[in-house]
Design a protein that fits this description.
Keywords: Membrane, Transmembrane, Transmembrane helix. The chain has one domain. The chain is built from six helices and no strands. Helix 2 packs antiparallel against helix 6. Helices cover 69% and strands 0% of the residues. The protein has 284 residues and is mainly alpha-helical. The radius of gyration is 41 Å and the shape is elongated.
Length: 284
Amino acid sequence: MDNAPSTRPSSLENSTSTTRSRSLPRKQASYDASALTINPSPLLTSSLHSRNSATSAQESAYLKRARWLGWVRLGLALLTLGSATAAAGCAGHVLRRYNATHLASGWHLSLWPLNVDLRPTLAVVASAAIITAASLGYLVLWLIPSPHSRTLLYNFVFLGSSLVGVVLCVFTIPFNLILVNPSSHHQRESLQSWTCKFSDGASRFNSDAQSLQIPVFATHGVPVPAGFERLCMEAQVGTGLMIAVLVLEAASCALAGVGILLEKQMTKARRERYANCEKGEHGS
């Protein structure tokens, strides 16, 4: 009985201290406030190589123009490839027939002159083959898939192949026109002049003889060597196709220049908008 009063105050003190400790606010755990800072993501852009973009209207217009220019580049590349391949095929067939039918100097009644000039035909074949390879290279690059935007690369590759074609055509066409026909400075016959001389001359002679009522002692008029009319036409078509290739390559250069100019304008617009965004952030 004497010990009971002494234990009650201690129990009361313990319960009071426990209640106070529970009622006291706990210290919150410290944390790094910078961890909750969310950096804004970069602006959306149509180019994966750029950190910023122009306005939505500018980007939308750019994508439409770039897509349209891409399809036009593809069409011009296909037309150039077809024209250059046809030119190489026509001139190559003429050269192949010459190699198959010309005889050495020891033979008589040769179909071809001994000093026939092959340079105009070789120039067409070589230039058309190089242009064909350049156009084919661009098409292969265009067909290779890539996750990145390669519009600027396409423009530069297309411009390079077009410039190569323009240079070759500017050299080949005058070279062919100057040397294709004999003149006072150049007296050698070319494959085109020799074949056309026989085919056109015989046809003209037959028509003139018929109009003048001159008897020609041949069943079908003056005969033309077999295949000369076709070879003459193929040689002329090859030169005409090279002129068409020159026009296509000039248009391709202009189109590539427009594409590069569009890329530069969009790059400038993106930089200006990004600079304005940074100024606004620093000002706030």
